[in-house]
């Protein structure tokens, strides 16, 4: 059933991607060549559909084809769950979703592969940040799920629950150190300086079962950044009101329910901190106050 759905979806994607280029090709090629090329593409797509239909028909006669899971069709699906929420109730992402709609770079067709991947990751982020019991996570295959950054060692879902998503992604540096910040502290630090941090898929290169895609994460630096660096020093970065915009690559292995079994994230973890200071310059932005006392909160 998944194979039939995948073939049919692939034929639809090929048609949608090939169609915009027809007019350009018609101008560049001789009329006879263009007709042959267009016919070949149409035949190829038709063949894919014919291969998909038997699987779809077989599935419909045996049992109803299962619908796609809501966490790949609704970006807010998991916020409707009855679960153990970190702050007693599901989070409200309405402001972040509004910023996403107003300033995103990509506009994916509903039901397209980029759209499905984007919604899957958004729901995964909600669960990783706000569901305190791994048993409540629906976007991951809990038996195999692991997470790694820039080729580093795999981290379990339980580890991410303990340290937080920011601490799982960022290594110790001159501006921030996970060892000096708890889960709660890290979220206060970054959500205070950047109240909305939108996320989108820019391109999908493959998938499933292995989905490789390029992503973008952005927001406005509204409040001063206050953290503790790898030396245990308090660091203040003055807010410049500009946009912090980072990009990266992710490779996610999915099961037949489109749940994440494994995800590898590749990005420059220093990009965010460098953009905090690029508008005003190092001297006027970065201020090391004094060594933080052991166990003192970072913000």
TrEMBL record:
InterPro entries noted in UniProt: NTF2-like_dom_sf (IPR032710), Pathogen-related_defense (IPR053218)
Name of this chain's protein: Pathogen-related protein
Organism, scientific name: Pyricularia oryzae (strain 70-15 / ATCC MYA-4617 / FGSC 8958)
């Amino acid at each position: 059933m998944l194979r039939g759905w995948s073939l049919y979806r692939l034929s639809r994607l090929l048609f949608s991607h090939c169609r915009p280029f027809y007019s350009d090709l018609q101008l560049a090629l001789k009329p006879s060549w263009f007709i042959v090329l267009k016919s070949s593409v149409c035949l190829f797509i038709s063949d894919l559909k014919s291969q998909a239909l038997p699987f779809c028909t077989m599935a419909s006669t045996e049992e109803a084809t299962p619908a796609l899971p809501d966490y790949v069709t609704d970006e807010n699906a998991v916020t409707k769950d009855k679960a153990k929420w970190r702050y007693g109730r599901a989070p409200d992402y309405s402001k972040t979703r509004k910023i996403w709609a107003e300033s995103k770079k990509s506009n994916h067709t509903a039901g397209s592969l980029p759209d499905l991947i984007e919604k899957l990751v958004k729901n995964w982020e909600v669960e990783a940040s706000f569901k305190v019991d791994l048993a409540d996570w629906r976007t991951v295959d809990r038996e195999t799920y692991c997470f790694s950054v820039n080729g580093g060692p795999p981290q379990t879902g339980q580890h991410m629950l303990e340290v937080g998503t920011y601490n799982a992604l960022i290594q110790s540096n001159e501006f921030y150190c996970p060892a000096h910040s708890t889960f709660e502290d890290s979220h206060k630090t970054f959500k205070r300086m950047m109240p909305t941090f939108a996320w989108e898929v820019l391109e999908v290169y493959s998938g499933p079962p292995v989905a490789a895609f390029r992503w973008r994460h952005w927001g406005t630096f509204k409040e001063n950044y206050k953290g503790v660096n790898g030396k245990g020093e308090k660091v203040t970065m003055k807010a410049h009101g500009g946009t912090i915009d980072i990009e990266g690559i992710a490779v996610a292995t999915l099961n037949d329910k489109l749940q994440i079994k494994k995800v590898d994230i590749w990005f420059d973890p220093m990009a965010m901190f460098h953009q905090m200071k690029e508008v005003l310059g190092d001297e006027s932005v970065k201020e090391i106050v004094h060594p933080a006392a052991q166990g003192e909160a970072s913000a």
